[in-house]
């Protein structure tokens, strides 16, 4: 029986463990540095059909329908012109059993966690050192405990300390010069949007996404706001939890977005957005990276969770077969998604009035062009 150590109890790590549970030849352990898995409410995620199809393999289609939502379209709005630009029908990619889904992140994490035996996840486990990397991997934790494994799967996020230990150098992501503001908001504060859809508001160096995550009246709110920070601000992780800083960000945003909405945000969180500098190049036959530890793109294609799920499934399918194929396929796909995420980021944040006019005109045409949509999004949503 092969022993597999998974570092990180996030979406990718938990889903990978659920997949491995379907095979008896693996002994699985998940090591989580925190003392519990956060199930904090009020943080929505989007799952496109590519990931829902994979989640259905472990029973996701049976999740309580009241705890999720299936939007039909993405409605695009111009904040400068205060009008609707166009809408994108994302339901064209749906199948009978897999539909574009929005839900609280905590609901997905809880679903993945509950399907695993409680003794699989060990908490307060942060790796200090790794020995015998090439075979019979030995993990030494900060609490001085030691375990051995045949495979090491690193899924501890974009700030993966485990990746730095394996590479024997400090690997840090890049600050994208953007801040995200998350929260929940009463849907009835929006008078002119379709409550069944995702609403995407485009502004100058700014965009906001609002969508339902279940059948109640609270919507998920996220805004991406371009902002330069100095080195000290970036390194001060506590800064983004301080009330005065969050208040200052909301004040800056008020010149771009409806002040009434911002005043009524609940459960507000503020954090800098980081992206990976380069795609990880595999060095060892028995060590793998998945999720944001492998690569993190800008969040402007809403593929963060979906790609974590995809990567876990692809590794599961190729673990004892063709690892080179897994790496090549994942690298090619991540490059495509990263390019399109960066392009969306640029297009969403245009400031020049002539450029905004050109963008809106082109969007109205392209979004109705089924061939373009199937090429631009179909390759992503259908994997």
Overall description:
This protein has 383 residues and is α/β, with parallel strands linked by helices. It has a single domain (2-172, 276-381), classed as FAD/NAD(P)-binding domain (3-Layer(bba) Sandwich). 32% of the residues lie in helices and 26% in strands. It is built from twelve helices and 17 strands. Strands 5-4-13-14-15-12-16 form a seven-stranded mixed beta sheet, sandwiched between helices. The protein has a five-stranded parallel beta sheet with strand order 7-2-1-11-17, covered by helices on one side. Strand 8 (127-131) and strand 9 form a beta hairpin. Helix 1 (11-20) packs parallel to helix 3. The protein is globular, with a radius of gyration of 21 Å. The mean pLDDT is 92.
User: What distance separates the N and C termini?
Assistant: 32 Å
Structural class computed from helices and strand pairing: alpha/beta
Largest sheet: 7 strands, mixed
Number of strands: 17
Strand content: 25-35%
Per CATH, the architecture is 3-Layer(bba) Sandwich
Q: Average pLDDT value?
A: 92
- Work out the helix count: 12
- Helix residue percentage: 25-40%
Integer tally of domains: 1
* Full CATH superfamily name: FAD/NAD(P)-binding domain
What would you call the shape? Answer: globular
Radius of gyration: 21 Å
The poorly predicted ranges are none
Under the CATH scheme, which class? Alpha Beta
The main sheet orders its strands as: 5-4-13-14-15-12-16
Would you list the SSEs in sequence order as H and E?
A: EHEEHEEEHEEEEEHEEEEHHHEEHHHHH
Provide the CATH topology: FAD/NAD(P)-binding domain
């Amino acid at each position: 029986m092969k022993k597999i150590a998974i570092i990180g109890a996030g979406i990718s790590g938990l889903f990978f463990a659920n997949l491995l549970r379907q095979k008896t030849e693996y002994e699985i352990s998940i090591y989580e540095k925190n003392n519990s898995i956060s199930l904090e409410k009020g943080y929505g995620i989007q799952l496109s059909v590519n990931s829902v199809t994979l989640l259905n393999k472990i029973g996701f289609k049976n999740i309580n329908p009241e705890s999720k939502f299936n939007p039909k379209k993405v409605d695009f709005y111009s904040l400068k012109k205060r009008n609707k630009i166009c809408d994108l029908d994302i339901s064209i990619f749906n199948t009978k059993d897999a539909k574009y889904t929005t839900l609280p992140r905590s609901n997905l994490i809880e679903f993945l966690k509950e399907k695993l035996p409680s003794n699989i996840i060990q908490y307060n486990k942060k790796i200090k050192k790794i020995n015998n990397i090439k075979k019979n991997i030995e993990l030494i934790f900060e609490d001085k405990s030691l375990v051995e494994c045949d495979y090491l799967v690193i899924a501890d996020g974009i700030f993966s300390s485990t990746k730095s230990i394996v590479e024997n150098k400090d690997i840090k992501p890049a600050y994208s010069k953007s801040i995200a503001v998350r929260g929940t908001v009463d849907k009835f504060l929006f008078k002119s949007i379709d409550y069944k859809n995702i609403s995407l508001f485009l502004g100058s160096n700014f965009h906001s996404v609002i969508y339902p995550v279940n059948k109640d009246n609270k919507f998920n709110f996220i805004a991406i706001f371009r902002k330069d920070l100095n080195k000290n601000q970036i390194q001060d992780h506590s800064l983004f939890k301080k009330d005065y800083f969050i208040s200052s960000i909301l004040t800056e945003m008020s010149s771009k977005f409806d002040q009434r909405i911002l005043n009524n945000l609940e459960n507000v969180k503020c954090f800098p957005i980081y992206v990976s500098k380069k795609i990880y190049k595999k060095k060892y036959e028995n060590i793998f990276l998945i999720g944001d530890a492998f690569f993190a793109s800008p969040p402007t294609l809403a593929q963060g969770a979906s790609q974590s799920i995809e990567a876990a499934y692809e590794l599961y399918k190729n673990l004892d077969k063709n690892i080179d194929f897994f790496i090549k396929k994942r690298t090619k796909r991540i490059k495509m998604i990263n390019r399109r995420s960066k392009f969306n980021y640029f297009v969403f944040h245009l400031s020049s009035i002539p450029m905004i006019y050109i963008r809106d005109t082109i969007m109205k045409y392209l979004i109705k062009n089924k061939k373009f949509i199937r090429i631009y999004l179909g390759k992503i949503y259908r994997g």
